[in-house]
Amino acid sequence: MEKVMKQTNREFIRFIVVGVINTFHYYVSYLLLHGIFGINYMFAHIAGFLISLVISFYLNSLFTFKVKPTLVKFLQFPVTQLLNITVSSLCVYIFIEQFQMESRTAPILSIFITIPLTFIVTGKILKK
């Protein structure tokens, strides 16, 4: 049991590292689309998410969970991220529309809610 916990802890730490890298890619995409090109915040959020989704798949496969990326897993991976996009989109919407939060900071706060959920779902899919 202790060995499983240590492995899970190492995976979670690697997942956080990948998450930081992936969040950077997402946020740069979001800021470019929303801040520079003036695209609606929700469209920019979803587009940035899709761009970072591909990066996330490969980094999580190869680095976090150390599994071979396959076409089947790649096709399943977006399904695992459905929870992430749903929860993060809802958070972004609520933060901006209900709490009048700045549209540039709302996506960053939403990740604190989605990280633990995404780790669990991602591990289940990639480790099959």
From TrEMBL:
Record's keyword terms, sorted: Membrane, Transmembrane, Transmembrane helix
A biological process term (GO) from this entry: polysaccharide biosynthetic process
Topology class, membrane: Multi-pass membrane protein
InterPro entries: GtrA_CellWall_Glycosyl, GtrA_DPMS_TM
Residues spanning the membrane: 12-33, 39-59, 71-96, 108-126
Limits of the GtrA/DPMS transmembrane domain: 14-122
Keyword Nucleotide-binding listed: no
Compartments it resides in: Membrane
Gene Ontology cellular-component terms listed: plasma membrane
Family of this protein: Belongs to the GtrA family.
The protein's name: Polysaccharide biosynthesis protein
Organism: Salipaludibacillus neizhouensis
